[in-house]
Please model this.
Amino acid sequence: MRIWDIHPGYLNRSSLLGEHRELHGILSIVRNNKKGYARHPETLRWVGHGWALSQRHKLLVAEMNLRGYVDKSPVRLRSNRGIWPDNEIDPPGRQLNILKEKYQSREPGRIPLPVNAQQYWAQHKYSVMSRDLGAYNGIGQRLASSSGQKELHELAAEILLLMKTPPNPRLLPNALSHMWGYVSRYAAISGKELDSWSLPRLLEKIQILTRENNVTYLAESTALSELAAWNL
Model:
């Protein structure tokens, strides 16, 4: 039984759909007071955190949608809105290592498991940009000369906290504009038409053009799916 804390993009098909099933299993235990795995540490950490469980479900569904799967089982819990469990079973850096061991002879996820802090940062860049410009600039400067696993594990913990907060409405358009820059050459539209698009429409078009044209940098970005999970 496992609900991951790292971005669902790191999960392969089996793990992604498996977590989705596990989450609904925990939901059933929590909501209906079933015994089963009621005392399992993974279940216990979500008790009283209905909003967070619902939000994790939205993140899973956003990733599933990006890969062509359709979810028909929404989760609508609201308890402790904005508050996540503070007791991960494993810290995010360790979770990445667990997946590396697990996937040695299996298919990978959409996002490659990072080999260093710089790669991890590149994968999360636009997710952070949409939330905190100070953190975005500070992390980029700090990583200019770092490379080890220690830095990766510290960065994973730092970014996980940032990504538990919703995108900032003032910063989100700028982050999407940067992402659009990678795919705009493939879109035959006028600036006027682009300006008329809503943010969800813009993100959807970025997703489509990224997939159709194999834009690797965006295809390996957490923002490509997770921004859609926050009701833009």
Observations:
- The mean pLDDT is 94.
- The CA atoms of residues 127 and 223 lie 5 Å apart.
